[in-house]
Design a protein that fits this description.
The protein is an all-alpha fold. The chain is built from 5 helices and no strands.
């Protein structure tokens, strides 16, 4: 189980990206999958948080090529977008 402080920091950063689309995509991904993460998974997500929102959204929506360092099972889950519930 990753450090709770790191998880709390990642959650805040995931949900405070600057645009509603990025918040729902990245924050929704965090909420849906973080409970199953090991340390390496959190490392991947923290690295993703360092990237520009426009790039992350392009990778998630499959409108831009995903850099090799972010390819794999976690990005495949992000690209499915089955984890986003938008409040009404």
């Amino acid at each position: 189980m990753p450090d709770p402080v790191r998880l709390a920091r990642a959650k805040f950063r995931a949900w405070h990206r600057g645009t509603r689309e990025a918040d729902y995509t990245i924050g929704g991904y965090f909420d849906r999958y973080h409970a199953d993460w090991a340390g390496a998974d959190l490392d991947w997500f923290e690295a993703l948080l360092e990237e520009d929102d426009v790039d992350v959204l392009a990778w998630a929506f499959q409108t831009g090529p995903v850099p090799e360092r972010f390819t794999g099972a976690q990005m495949a889950l992000m690209q499915r977008l089955d984890y986003v519930t938008i409040p009404r």
